[in-house]
Amino acid sequence: MTAATAPLITIVIPAYNAEKTLLETLGSVSSQSYDKLEILVVDDGSRDGTFDLARDYGLKDDRVRVLRQDNGGVARARNHGIREARGLYIAPVDADDIWHPEKIELQLQALKKFPDGHGVAYNWYAAIDENGIIFGHSRPVLHQGDIFELLLRENFIGNGSTPLMPRADVLACGGYDAGLRDAGAEGCEDLKLYLALAEKLPFALVPDFLTGYRFTRGNMSSNAHRMLKSHALVMAPIAARYPQLARDIRAAQFNTARWYFKKAFFDGDYPQVKKLAPMMAGKYTPQLIIYGMRDSWRQAKRQGIAMAKRALGRPPARPKTRFAGAVLPQPGTAFSDRFTTVPVKDAVKPTGGSRP
């Protein structure tokens, strides 16, 4: 890894009307075990106390610098911070998300497997509510190396607050696409950048849940219709470049739509359900039938196995508490409770797809 053994990391925090959560985010960032940090808070034209909170925090931590811009959206705010950054790597985090204290340190360790540390590092996330309480988590995958096709099929990174990325390559890819917001399709700027980086660079995994990704009503990821429009715009040019991947892209679009529909339904967000239902029925009828049949078969198979075990007097299987050595996030617990758990530091064997 060049830039000596301890490169400067620039953390970019886009913040818009974030006074309720910004201090918690800043606290999780400034308390990282790796302390050679530059922390840039980009106030995106906030109308509340966001700027004052960030400025006052900077008086206590001289690594914090506050930037301001007229409201232009999260992509422009991130790009502003990236342009101003002095670090070799960029680590974005939204102003309502939080990190495990060892996130940056473990990601840098993971990148050492690549020549000069030239790659992107990511980890899994725990889904948290307004109070920082866990209610779910990302599907823990073990993808490393060339992950372009894998990421195309499933956005397993899943948010904008997880990766550690080389600044020069982010700039070479054009940063985050602010044009999606201008087209009324804000939401998949992070996925578009990750795919652009994955076409050029290997990815390294830290196999633990080091990001607390907050889901709240009204945040960008809760607007399913806009997110699906954003996803379609991101995938269109990739489908044109790689026509042999068209089937994978269609499957990814269906799975994305199904995920948002399911989330809206179980969240009781019926306005979203009413918007999505006609689209799901009209555009994905064959896929829904196939998925429904497969899901019914899986449920019947699980029930059959459970019934057979009971008939044989075998105890039911205990729920898994670990995956690949990492403690699985437990619903109903605070994300901060995980800080006493030592993350997994062993590298896992790379599993990546071949480049088309």
CATH topology-level name of the largest domain: Spore Coat Polysaccharide Biosynthesis Protein SpsA, Chain A
Q: What characterizes the major β-sheet? A: 5 strands, mixed
Text of the CATH class of the largest domain:
Alpha Beta
The succession of helices and strands, N to C, reads: EHEHEHEEHEEHEHHHEHHHHEE
Shape, per Cα inertia axes: globular
Fraction of residues in helices?
40-55%
Look at the structure and give the mean pLDDT.
88
Query: So, the CATH homologous superfamily of the largest domain?
Result: Spore Coat Polysaccharide Biosynthesis Protein SpsA, Chain A
Strand content: 15-25%
> Whole-Å distance between the termini?
29 Å
What structural class results from the helix and strand content?
alpha/beta
Specify the CATH architecture of the largest domain. Answer: Alpha-Beta Complex
Number of domains: 2
Stretches with pLDDT under 50, minimum 5 residues = 342-351
> How is the largest sheet built, in terms of strand order?
3-2-1-4-8
Question: Number of DSSP helices?
Answer: 12
Radius of gyration, CA atoms, in whole angstroms:
21 Å
| Strand elements, count | 11
Features:
single chain, about 350 residues, alpha/beta, Spore Coat Polysaccharide Biosynthesis Protein SpsA, Chain A, about 15% strand, globular, Glycosyltransferase family 2 protein, glycosyltransferase, glycosyltransferase activity, Nucleotide-diphossugar_trans
Summarize the structure.
The chain is of the alpha/beta class. The protein has helices at residues 22-30, 50-60, 74-84, 103-111, 148-153, 167-172, 179-182, 189-198, 224-241, 246-266, 270-283, 285-311, and strands at 9-15, 37-44, 64-69, 89-92, 98-99, 120-128, 134-137, 165-166, 203-214, 322-323, 326-327.
